[in-house]
Automatic annotation (TrEMBL):
Any one of the GO CC terms: plasma membrane
Subcellular location(s) per record: Cell membrane
Membrane protein topology class: Single-pass membrane protein; Single-pass type II membrane protein
Protein name: Biopolymer transport protein
Transmembrane segments annotated in the record for this chain: 21-41
Keywords from the named record: Cell membrane, Membrane, Protein transport, Transmembrane, Transmembrane helix, Transport
GO molecular function, one term: transmembrane transporter activity
Homology family: Belongs to the ExbD/TolR family.
Gene Ontology biological process terms in this record: protein transport
Length: 131
């Protein structure tokens, strides 16, 4: 009669290095989260009952390759564009005119929009794609 016990190999997972891995992951995410915006100065703003900020408005002016003007997806003529931009005169801090010109468009309609915006002292941004 053979009464010897058979030696079974136990399955075990060595977790001694898991603490090191978790420490390095925590350290990495803490450092990465501070480097996301390194030039940000964190301040707590004071509270006021009447302090409201005025949201800035963007006026999108599109120029097609045919020389047509669109203001916020509505077709307008050049005199109508002049009137629309004239209504924002004196609000240069609140309004920005964004020009979306077709790459195949003629230069003159594009320059007309720039001229109208500068005449009414509005901020002007030209939209472009990255190469």
């Amino acid at each position: 009669m053979n009464l010897r016990r058979r030696h079974k190999i136990g399955a075990e997972v060595n977790t001694s290095s898991l603490n090191d891995i978790m420490f390095f992951l925590l350290l990495f995410f803490l450092l990465a989260s501070t480097l996301v915006a390194p030039h940000v100065i964190k301040v707590t703003l004071p509270k006021a009952a009447t302090g409201q900020t005025v949201p800035k408005k963007n006026v999108n002016v599109s120029v097609t390759k045919d020389g047509q003007y669109f203001v916020d997806k509505q077709a307008v003529s050049e005199p109508q564009l002049e009137e629309i931009l004239k209504s924002y005169e004196g609000k240069a801090e609140e309004v920005t005119v964004i020009i979306n010109a077709d790459s195949a468009a003629q230069v003159q309609p594009f320059v007309n929009v720039m001229d109208i915006a500068s005449r009414h002292k509005l901020k002007l941004v030209v939209a472009a794609q990255k190469k």
